[in-house]
Design goal:
By secondary structure, the chain is α/β, with parallel strands linked by helices. It folds into two domains: 52 residues, no CATH class; 284 residues, Divalent-metal-dependent TIM barrel enzymes (TIM Barrel). It is built from twelve helices and 14 strands. The two termini are 21 Å apart.
Amino acid sequence: MGICWRSDKQNGGKSLDTQNFPPHYMPMLRSMNRRQFITNTTAISFATLLSGLPMRAANFTGRLRKAMIVKEVTEQALEPLKSAGFDGVETNHVCPEDEAAKGRAVAEKLGLRVHSVLRGWMEFNSDEPPKVEDSLEKVRLALRAARAYGADAILVVPCRVGGMPMPEPWEFDIAFDEKTCHVTRVAAGDNSNYAAYIKAQNRATDTSRVAVEKLVPLAEELQVIIALENVWNNLWVQPALYQHFIASFASPWVKSYFDIGNHVKYSPPQDWIKALGPLIAKVHIKDFRLNPDGKGGKFVHPRDGSIDWPVVRRALSDIGYDGWATIEDGGLELTEFSRRFDLIAEGK
């Protein structure tokens, strides 16, 4: 909010324009001319004077743009979101470019934006070359669809591992080589029981890097970010390792798609945010309620779980995040999701 002065011949030439101030400030402010205002605020800071204004109280850096996930981008899907106060959508409908362009036109007609395409799970670590190539082609199609939609990123989960002994979420204590991102330990003490998992983790890292690097030239050509997500795929499960993996690409076209709720079972999401910093391209919003002992839990609606949302909002501000935050949830009215989003954005 700016400070405005209006002409006032009866009050020293200029007086403060009070139309943007709350009513309880009026008696004091109307009595001030410009000289009095400047004199008084040398003793009482203007920041203190305005501390009760909601729009300045949080003092966050960056805006969170409100989005929801949809399938096909149609007026029928988007109009309720527009009415509920959303700014845009993420779509999981990967389609030919001409169809995506029509979706973009629909969104723009309503004053919304398709900001991202959710491509999902890939098999970059498959032992079968045709499956790897199929995954690469799926990502290429998603990149082209994203450009036609007017989106600036796609969400990709590079691969997943499982079927072997691995630590419980609260047992992870990872050590890794910062040059290769190869893990050397995943838990404290004897790791012999986790040998297969360590091998699978390191292979996933290597094969994912090879695959994604093949896609970077197309991403750069199309100006669409490949945003990698580690969504319960048992990979890169601690902030430092995930940060080093994303940073190892050394490309502005490879970043992280950070899901706030997905990481609660490993460590507080604000720790992940601080570690990833500017590597975060987009964020997903959902919540997770830990069991009373802090071990295990379940997904719940935003603000119903264990996430300390004011702390998370401050962490996003501290890293200068200014971008989209997409609710990945269902089961509530859109207006209620919108209300809860607003509270999160306000740091409440």
